[in-house]
């Protein structure tokens, strides 16, 4: 019996942007992408040589047109999830301060959601374990 092929480790970073009303921003994966139609926290793949905070600053500028300072990114929790062809490791940060106005720059739908309602949005399996920590932090 052959040894199983180890899954490639994919490092992705995400952020829960929290507005003044305590709502969290979700982005819907656009058609044509893997897991299209599911809702997720903004973020993206960590490029070689990048720190997670640098990735979020870059991704938030590209995806949403906002500027975030590293000091405003607070690590909260992480997800570790085995998909069929890779293993995802995803730290989740919380950010309550940014410059600019959130706009969908990559054709994605955006929605501000109350913490208690996050679980009603279909999400990728790796995102689901992140929800209890967010609700504990932000309240219902």
Automatic annotation (TrEMBL):
Domain of life: Bacteria
Domain (Nudix hydrolase) ranges: 8-136
Annotated EC: 3.6.1.55
Gene3D superfamilies in the record: Nucleoside Triphosphate Pyrophosphohydrolase
UniProt keyword Iron, yes or no: no
Catalytic activity: 8-oxo-GTP + H2O = 8-oxo-GMP + diphosphate + H(+); 8-oxo-dGTP + H2O = 8-oxo-dGMP + diphosphate + H(+)
Cofactor(s) required, per the database record: Mg(2+)
Keyword match DNA damage: yes
InterPro entries: MutT-like, MutY_C, Nudix_hydrolase, NUDIX_hydrolase-like_dom_sf, NUDIX_hydrolase_CS, NUDIX_hydrolase_dom
Keywords, alphabetical: DNA damage, DNA repair, DNA replication, Hydrolase, Magnesium, Metal-binding, Mutator protein
Family designation: Belongs to the Nudix hydrolase family.
UniProt name for this protein: 8-oxo-dGTP diphosphatase
Species, as recorded: Methylobacterium isbiliense
Gene that produces this protein: nudG
């Amino acid at each position: 019996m052959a040894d199983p092929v180890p899954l490639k480790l994919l490092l992705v970073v995400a952020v829960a942007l929290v507005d003044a009303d305590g709502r969290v921003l979700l982005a819907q994966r656009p058609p044509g992408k893997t897991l299209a139609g599911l809702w997720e926290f903004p973020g993206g793949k960590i490029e070689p040589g990048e720190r997670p905070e640098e990735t979020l600053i870059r991704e938030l500028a590209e995806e949403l047109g906002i500027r975030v300072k590293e000091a405003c990114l607070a690590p909260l929790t992480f997800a570790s999830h085995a998909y069929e062809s890779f293993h995802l490791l995803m730290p989740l940060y919380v950010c309550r301060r940014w410059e600019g106005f959130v706009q969908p720059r990559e054709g994605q739908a955006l929605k501000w959601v109350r913490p208690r309602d996050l679980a009603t949005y279909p999400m990728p399996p790796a995102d689901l374990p992140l929800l209890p920590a967010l609700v504990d932090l932000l309240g219902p």
